[in-house]
Design goal:
With about 270 residues, this protein is an alpha/beta fold. The chain has a single domain (about 1-260), classed as Alpha-Beta Barrel (TIM Barrel). It is built from 9 helices and 9 strands. The protein has helices at about 15-25, 50-60, 80-95, 110-120, 125-145, 165-175, 190-200, 225-235, 250-260, and strands at about 1-5, 30-35, 65-70, 75, 100-105, 160, 180, 210-215, 240-245. A 9-stranded parallel beta sheet has the order 3-2-1-9-8-7-6-5-4. Helix 1 (about 15-25) packs parallel to helix 9 (about 250-260), helix 3 packs across helix 5 (about 125-145) and helix 5 (about 125-145) runs parallel beside helix 6 (about 165-175). The termini are close together.
């Protein structure tokens, strides 16, 4: 199971994110992620929130080995046609290291609804937002085929759909290449089974299906013999993504890498 780091962008500064990313790569972590949010829902006095795609493009240039990705992009924030070209470009910039996380965005009951309203976006009902994820994946795949003269990524990055319930798990299995949810989700095993069953029923059995989960950076996720880490491995998780809040401590990240027993590796899949 691969182990990644997610740099939480709320009130983060680019220079600190860069230093933390380099520390994570040096420590042997397998991937780097960040969230797709535009403001801090818990306060308006901080320095703001660096935009996810811009950060990822910059990290792609300063790193060499780690996979990179958004966890996850709200499909309402960027037109899917534009996103298809953005992703193909970032796949080229990164040398094929992109993991494309997509999601429906927060619902009306979350603090992120204020963020969407501020940029003129209406937060629709759950089923409408979920359907937009399906539509976005379909358009992105069509444009990536190269038939319309759009930039074609080589290879196409895996699309990983994030969610917390059976609806999004099913969409991930039926239309995407992976599913992301919480490591401590009380129904983790059932959600993973739902996603895998839908993937098998889609007729795309030959394509790999990646399961990723996220949790806080904590010793119980780092030690190979830890019960928490072993539990997600048994559930069939391929990538464990550990959240690191600002201000980022490069020393802490390096110590976590040593505890994990990670060593820099040539692969970045």
């Amino acid at each position: 199971m691969k182990t990644d780091v997610l740099l939480i962008p709320m009130s983060a500064r680019w220079a600190d994110m860069r230093a933390a990313a380099l520390a994570a790569e040096d420590a042997g972590f397998d991937g780097l992620w960040t969230w797709d949010h535009l403001r801090d829902p818990h306060g308006d006095r901080g320095p703001g929130v660096p935009e996810a795609w811009t950060v990822l493009a910059a990290l792609a240039e300063v790193t060499r080995r780690v996979s990179i990705g958004p966890l996850v992009l709200n499909v309402a924030n960027r037109a899917p046609g534009l996103l298809a070209n953005m992703a193909a470009t970032l796949q080229a910039v990164s040398g094929g290291r992109l993991l494309l996380g997509l999601g429906a965005g927060g619902n009306r009951r979350t603090p992120y609804a204020v963020e969407q309203a501020a940029i003129g976006q209406t937060v629709e009902r759950d089923e409408i937002r979920a359907h937009r994820v399906v539509e976005a994946i379909g358009l992105i795949r069509r444009l990536w085929s190269g038939e319309s003269g759009f930039l074609r990524p080589e290879p196409p990055p895996p699309i990983i759909v994030g969610g917390f319930g059976p609806r999004m798990a099913a969409i991930a299995g039926r239309h995407a290449d992976g599913f992301n949810t919480q490591a401590l989700h009380p129904e983790l095993g059932e959600l993973v089974r739902r996603a895998r069953d839908e993937h098998a029923a889609s007729g795309r059995d030959a394509s790999p299906f990646v399961v990723t989960v996220f949790a806080g950076l904590d010793e119980r996720w780092l030690r190979a013999d830890a019960r928490a880490r072993q539990s997600v491995e048994r559930a069939g998780v391929h990538r464990l993504i550990l959240l690191v809040p600002p201000p980022f401590d490069a020393g802490e990240i390096q110590r976590a890498g040593r505890l994990l027993g990670a060593r820099p590796r040539a692969d970045s899949a």
